[in-house]
Design a protein that fits this description.
The complex is a heterodimer of chains A (111) and B (113).
Chain A (H helix, E strand, L loop, with lengths): L2 E3 L3 E5 L4 E8 L3 E9 L6 E6 L3 E5 L2 E6 L4 E6 L8 E9 L6 E3 L3 E6 L1
Parallel strand pairs in A: 2-11
Antiparallel strand pairs in A: 1-3, 3-8, 4-5, 4-9, 6-7, 7-8, 9-10, 9-11
Chain B lengths: L4 E3 L2 E4 L5 E6 L6 E7 L6 E7 L2 E5 L7 E4 L6 E5 L8 E8 L7 E2 L3 E5 L1
Parallel strand pairs in B: 2-11
Antiparallel strand pairs in B: 1-3, 3-8, 4-5, 4-9, 5-6, 7-8, 9-10, 9-11
The chains are: A mainly beta (111), B mainly beta (113).
């Protein structure tokens, strides 16, 4: 099995920067995903890290350290529409092709 | 390409009834996944198809659950003798196998009374 931990809730101000952390324990790590999910909607793909380092995509960046079992999602220039749940998911070769998700971090962006 | 679609979007049923959900993956995606998500939790894996073959099933998938993908395109998930604990959002995802990125449908929200 594996353990994926991320904070339950975070609050940040419009225009600011927020970092959402994710730690994981797995024996067959094969990549880490971040998804965004608005209430009542499907998760939408944000980023995929398989190697150590930072992946930047517009206002969103994702970092991975495999040796530390750690990732973070960085959101810059926050907008109100960024209020959503952010899901960290690990792709584990020991679990076939399934994604194993954390419980998600609910981000509230305030004016 | 309109993405992954699921029907119905909402289903309310009485305990003990059978329900069936449908998922249409993105065209040419040969891998299809079913997940279940309850409030405040991340999606939990249920089962996975490569083309028409069901290759993996989670221990969460009890005998009351069955999934099919007869022609390697759309898939159905049936729950027999529904229980209140089956109330959840049922999500479908697909990928073409050239990448590991799974694209999700909007889900079917099941409420068992």
């Amino acid at each position: 099995g594996q353990n994926i931990d991320q904070p339950t809730e975070m609050t940040a101000t419009e225009g600011a920067i927020v970092q959402i952390n994710c730690t994981y324990q797995t024996s067959g790590f094969n990549g880490l995903f971040w998804y965004q999910q608005h209430a009542g909607e499907a998760p939408t793909f944000l980023s995929y890290n398989v190697l150590d380092g930072l992946e930047e995509k517009g206002r969103f960046s994702s970092f991975l350290s495999r040796s530390k079992g750690y990732s973070y999602l960085l959101l810059k220039e926050l907008q109100m529409k960024d209020s959503a749940s952010y899901l960290c998911a690990v792709y584990d070769s020991n679990s076939g092709y399934a994604l194993n998700f954390g419980k998600g971090t609910s981000l509230l962006v305030t004016p | 390409d309109t993405g992954v679609s699921q029907n119905p979007r909402h289903k309310i049923t009485k305990r003990g009834q059978n329900v069936t959900f449908r998922c249409d993956p993105i065209s040419e995606h040969n891998r299809l996944y079913w997940y279940r998500q309850t409030l405040g939790q991340g999606p939990e894996f249920l089962t996975y198809f490569q083309n028409e073959a069901q290759l993996e099933k989670s221990r969460l998938l009890s005998d009351r659950f069955s999934a099919e993908r007869p022609k390697g395109s759309f898939s159905t998930l049936e729950i027999q003798r529904t229980e209140q604990g089956d109330s959840a959002m049922y999500l479908c995802a697909s990928t073409d196998g050239s990448t590991d990125t799974q694209y999700f449908g909007p889900g079917t929200r099941l409420t068992v009374l």
